[in-house]
Structures are given as structure tokens and as C-alpha cells.
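## Example record

The block below lists the input lines for one assembly entry, exactly as stored, with component labels intact.
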Amino acid sequence: MAKVRKPELVVIGAGPAGLGAALAACEAGLKDVMIVERDVELGGILPQCIHDGFGSMVFGETLTGPQYAQRYVDRVEGSDIEVKLNTMVLDLRADRSLTAVNSRDGVMEIKPKAVVLAMGCRERTRHQILIPGYRPAGVICAGAAQRDINIEGLMPGRRVVILGSGDIGLIMARRFALEGAEVEGVYEIMDHPGGLTRNLVQCLYDYDIPLHLSHTVTFIHGRKRVEAVTVSRVNDNLKPVPGTERLVLCDALVLSVGLIPENELSKRAGVLLDPATGGPVVDENMETSVEGIFACGNVVNVFDLVDYVTHTAEIAGRAAAEYVLGRKERKGEALRLRPGRNVRFVVPQLLSGSEKEVYFYFRVSRPERAVRAQLVTDGTPLAARKVRMVRPPEMVRLRADPERLKEALSRGDLTVEVLPEDKESERGPEQRMGKG
Amino acid sequence: MKRRIHLELPDSAQAIVVGAGIIGCAIAREITRYTPDVLVLEKENDVACGASKANNAEVHSGIGEEAGTLKQKLNVRGNRMYDEFVKGLGVDFKRQGLLIVVTPRSILPQVAEKMSPEELDDLLRVNIPRGIVAYGEAAGIEGLRILTREEVLEREPNVTPEVVSGVFDPNYGLVCPYKLTIALAEHAVMNGARIFCNTEVVGIRVVDGAVKGVITNRGEISTSLVVNAAGVFADEVADMAGAGGFRIHPRKGATLLFDRQVTSEYVRSSVALFRMPGMKKERSKGGGAMPTVEGNLQLGPTAVEVDDKYDTSVSAEEIEEIFERFHYLFPNFPKDAVISAFSGVRAPTHEEDFIIEPSDRVRGFVNVAGIQSPGLASAPAIVEMVMGFLHELGIPREPRPDFKSLRPATPRFAELDDKERNRLIKMDPRWGNIVCRCEYVTEAEVLAAIHSLVPARDMDGVKRRTRTGMGRCQGGFCGHRVAGILARELGVPVTEVTKSGEGSPIYLAETKGFLRTERARHGQG
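Predicted C-alpha cells for the full assembly:
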């Protein structure tokens, strides 16, 4: 039991991020790759996402979650990748060694040359948003409810109130409705919906499920099982307005109130985290502050499309392979990107000059119409895109050429910003910049 | 689920304890040292379902209690007895100490205004700490130490820089109250006691001024000795016997609990802000910040009078109050790391003191009532006092030679070293199957909880015994797994698994279940 395993690469997590990274690493030449997954099967959260809409960017067609996952699972199963299911990583250290456990192997010491963090994210609970009230059965996070219904075949509620209009909340509203449960309504504390527009239409409007913006749940009733919730309107500071309380009878409160990148292991290894994303600070190779530890997918930042997750996974997998094979030398000081006007955060956060094209993912702080999203160095645009509408829940992606990025590196400044599009610049930075 | 709760009630018992909280279970355990023939009756689905599961886990020293009260006397004594009390139970107990912090807010502003800066400094730096020490020493509390501002900040660097001085009380301890209750219950059962859950006392049979039996929702048991340890319901149980005359007015207290990964080193000891007598609005020691045995930071509790003895809700006002209060004491406390908020209902009487006495009207009926904080700390001394009465009322004085003094505890995977982990996994592979990811709880531990002497029958029962669902994800990942194991082990469909007994199912149907009933209804119509 105590034998130390020394694979080239260990990927922690077998969701789309982990699978994508492991496969990319193999394609880049690694022979001894191990995936460690705590669940009973590969695919992460995808097997429970039975709705469609996955893969339009990666595969050019829309798939269901299980279909999307299966494409990677098949490839992994046809490869030499060693898969450890039902295996929990207990510890990860800065020297990249890790301790894991399962029933068959017992406690294992694993000393890989590189590690890819692909642990995904977890759901924010009622206590993290401090909903007052009792603690009965029937208060459940949307993703957990999705698993109950789609995998376990069990209904956690019959008359349901949903708090939070993020995508999972919307999708679960429809899912409950399809199962014959009654969805009393979806309540959203913000004055705008949290999920993608297509989900609003397909999951709420098509099923006549009301969406109550600027509302939140202010009390959970029921000592044993949820009996009702109090909902209240909120003011501009998101505080409940006294006198607007309404009692809604229900037997379940489903929460879709945010996802948190799952970085407990990253912290143990001393990986530097970005407070804005909740995930590791990474460079364009998806390498973290700890050499040889890479990260991808939702552990870095909660992406809204699985296609983006796969994209970062492939980068991380390839870069990890290059690292193991000794092709990559880590540059000294990396350039730190600055989030500019109406930009909350950017991933990757660092640029270390690896002469590749780079996709920058970022979120805005507030909704804005007719804007130009751009990458600038010392005020000179390097890459830009016109966007009709930006909203905090919808991530923006910007591609930049290696040539352009070199310029930024030499100047030591790179900023991502969102500017209102005016007539003048409509001819566009793209044209101004030429085709590069 | 059904298996154990429908065990036949016996016809008679030498003694019956009403209520399976910490006090009831501790008394039952103590009785079994002399006779095995004791029953504990509990109306909930598990032991430790009232205040014993929802307090701050503190073993107070007695320094916060009013001089001359029974509370203070039993608290000071109980604290001293604690190491002996928990011995052999396999429950962690440690003395982390209490740091009483003195700041300018320790006194009323109108008092401060009338003083010169020198006088004020003298009061905060010298006289108040000395006063605290003198007060404690008068109550028999030993080891109190005055700390300078620098010493306070060195000990607890997160405390407000406004601190002027402090007093350290090394006697304060931490113990997990529900784990202790469960351990005491199991220890009692090991020694012959029987515990019946879902068994509500509805009457006490009294004939000619003496207890003859206890009437429950599941039948009557004859006995000549009843110990009323019914917590917030102790007044109602006493009234059933005609041995009452006091009222319990429920007072709830809410606490915020933080992620231990973030807060395990936030405070070393319990920390409380000293406030001059008369400054407290509410009747509570005022709460503070304290770690749990496991390392989670706790802030609280509040103290709110409520009408309903079942009111374990946490209100928005309480959350705000806790934030406000501790924002002062700990300017940088980790607001975002809250993982849980809970509330317990205290059981004070109007006299605010413990009522521990045999009834002078009903022979064989002993009240152990009004046990609110520091009930956990006082428990050993309360038990000792109650045993004095019980010996008078017929419990033998001679200890049993066959009393088993050790209660084996299930090891916790999270706390073992790798060698020990591997040894267990070799023996039983389920020790290698992690069910709860946040707290590293294995399937073997869950099984042990379900098949223990005082078995877990619901999700909360497993949670209290193993910590499943107590971490940062609060059961999001492990909920369905634990429910599945419970269903399998208890031989019931998973739709019958509950969170905390009857009326609290986790799942309401299988998928398509609602559609089927819908169709059936349409078919009939």
C-alpha cells in the first residue's frame, strides 16, 4: 500500500477540465498520466446536465452534458491514462507531491513531475448568504437538486421556490416543472437576471414560471421540512424593504446563489489565489504561482460555457506536458494584466511571454450596451471586439496575437477595458490595427 | 428507520430520566454506576436534540455567574470535575482558556466622560482587571492572570487595537456538546441503561403523593423514581406530576460558525469583551468569540426571548447584531467564511437559577430544571448533586463491580496518521471510501454511527456523530450519499430517510412520482 507512485502528470478532477487536460497532455507527448477523481464516474458535473447547449464552440454542434462528457470519456478510456475513481486527494504540497486515498489502494503517496488542478467549483450555500430562519429539510442547492433528480432519480421538492436566476437555477426551474413539481417562482436579488438570455426564454418564459427581480428570500419557515418562505423586495443596496414581505407556501427552497472555485487543495500547496476570481492566479499557460502546478476550468474561475473550460484545459494540459518534457523554461517576472474600465477581472491574470496566441476571458462589473472590449498597452489597442451588450453573467473573450503581446511585454503594460462604442471609433480598432 | 424506535417499552424500571440532553444522559450514565435499571425517554428522534446540540461548546469557569447563585457554585465545581467527567468517553476536551478583554467600550460613555484621562486609564488598565480577578477568586476560581495590552495582542493578535488590558482565565474548556451527550448516552447503554427516542412523556402517575409511573405516547411504565431533565419542557413535565410551580421562558441564542480552514488559528482561546455590570441589555453572559474543538471560529450567541420553545430560527436582526458586535472586537473577522448559523433555545426560569431538588410534594420526583448556560460546564456537579437525592430515594449507594468504565469511540479518519488509516482500510475497505469531502468522513464512520449503541437514524444524527455535511459545502456533495447509506442500512426506501425524524423527509418522491399521481388523479376525474 505504501508504494510511492511517480507519474509524469497527475490531474486532480475528471470533469471536462480534467479530462481535457489529461488528453491534451498525452497528445503533447506524455506517456504516464494519472487522473484522480473523487466521484464514482468520469465527467464531473456534466452527466447530470441532461439539457442541451454544450459544445457549440468546441464541436460546432449542441450536445447534452452527458454527450459532451462522453466524447472525452471515450477518448480517455481508449488511451493509456490511468484513472483512479472514488479516490480523494487529501493533501497537495508545493513540491507537487500529493496524498490520496481510496478503498483499493489505501493511502497513496504520489510524486508527479507536474500537477493540473481541475477540481471545479462548489455551490454557495444558504449560510454563506445568511438567509435567516429555521434549518429544515428541503433547503437545497440547485446543483445538488439537479443531481438528485437526474442521477439519483429522486425529487427533493414538490412545491418549489427558487432563489437566484443563475443558469442552474433557471435550468432547474424547468426541470422541476417537467417532473410535475410546481415552481412558484424564481426570485433574484439583482435588478437583472443572472443567467444567459437563452435560458431565461427556454426555462422560464416557455413554462410560464414567473421571475421576480429585486427580490430575495428573507426567512425560511418550517421546523422539520420547509413549509414556506418569506420573500421581500430589496432596495438599491440589496437590503430587504420592510413592509414588502410576502409569505410563499412551498416545501423546498432551491438555491442558485453562486459557485465558488474549489481551491482547498490549491491553498494547501501554497498556490496564490486571486480574490476577484476565487481561483489561482495563472499565466497564459495556465500555470499557477507554484512551478509545475497548472490549473484549468472552473477551479480558476467559474466559466459560463463548458467550451471555455475545455479550452483552458487543453492549454493547461499542453503546458504541463511541455513542462514535464523540459521544453519550457519559466520566465522570470511575468506581466500582470490590469482590469480597466468596467472590467471585474481577467483570466489569465499574468502574461509570461510564451509567444502563443492568448485568449483573455473577463467579466464586466455592470451591464452596458454597444461597447468595445479591448486590450491596450500604454493606451494603444492591441486587440478589440465590438460587443452589442455586455452583462456580468456573460463572459467576454478576447483573442490576442503573439506579436501584439510582445509589444505589451516590452512596454510592461497590458490593460483590458470596456469602452462605450462611439460613432467615431466604429470604423473600428480592428481596421485601424489592420489584420496584423 | 423504524427498526429501533418500535422496540417494546418495558413495563417497569427502577428509575426513569425524562429528556436525553446532556443532563439527562449524564444522570443516566451516573445511575448505571449503581444500577443498570434506568430508562431515558426522549420525544425527538435522537439524543442531544435540544439545547445540547446548539450551544457554544464552552465549559465555563463560573466567572461570568452571579455570586451566591447555585449556578455559580455548580459551575465552578463542574469545571474542576470535567477531566474526570469525560474520562474514558473518547470525547475531546481541552482547556483553551478565556481572555476577557477590557477596552474603552467596557464602560458606559457617560461614566467615561466624567473621568480625567488618567482616571479612565487607571480604571481600564488597573482597576477593572483587578476587580475581575478579585470577583473570580472570591468564587473559588484559580489561576486568573492580568494581562497588559501587549500581552493580550500577543496572545490574540486579531483583537481590536483599542484593547487596554485583559484577564486570562485558564479554566475555560471546549467540548463538543452533542458528541459528549451521545458518548454519555452510549456509555449508559453499555452499562445497561435503555434509551427510547420518539417517546414523549404525556403524564406522570402519582398515587398518594408518590411517583408510580410514567405515561408516554407509547404506553405506561411503572417506576418510583423520575428525574425531570426535560430542558425547555421541564416546567410542563413537572406540572404533569404536580411537582411544578416554576415556568421556563424560552430564550434563544444564535451563533455564527465559520469555515475551520479559514479560521482555525483566528483565536487561540475564547475571547469576550468585558462590560461593566448594568451594560448588558440581554440576560446572557454576553457571548464572545470561541473556537470549537474542531477549530471553527464561532461568534455569538445572541439572547432573544421567544414565545415558542421550538423557535430555533436565526433572525436577520440577530445576524446583524453579531456582525456589529464582533466587528468591534475583531475588526478583521472573516465575514465571508461563515458556513453555518444556528440557534438553540435556552431554558431559563424567572429566577435565572438552576432548580435542582426533589419535589417536596411528590416523592420520587426530582426536578433538574432551568438548566441553561453554564449547564454544559456545570453538568458534572449537577449530576453529583442529583445523585445525592437519588441515593436518598433508593438508588443503591454501592457501585456495581461490573460497571464498564471505558466507552470505545469510533476513530476519525481525518485525525489518523496514514499508517493507521492503511491498517483500517486493510481491515475494512470502507475506511478508504470518503463520503464527506469537506470533513473527510469515510463510509466506515457513517456505518459505525448507524450501528452504534445509540444509533443515528437520520441525516442529522449521522452528521452529529461523524461531521458529514458540517463542512463548507454543508452537505451539498455528500447529502445523497449519506441518505443512500442510511436507507440501505436501515432497510427502508430512500424516500423514508429524514433529516431529523418524522416530518422531515429529504426526498418527497422518486422522479416521475408526481406525474404518476397527477395522471391517476386525472384518470379518476
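Chain A touches chain B through 55 residues (CB under 8 Å). The longest strand of chain A covers residues 380-390.
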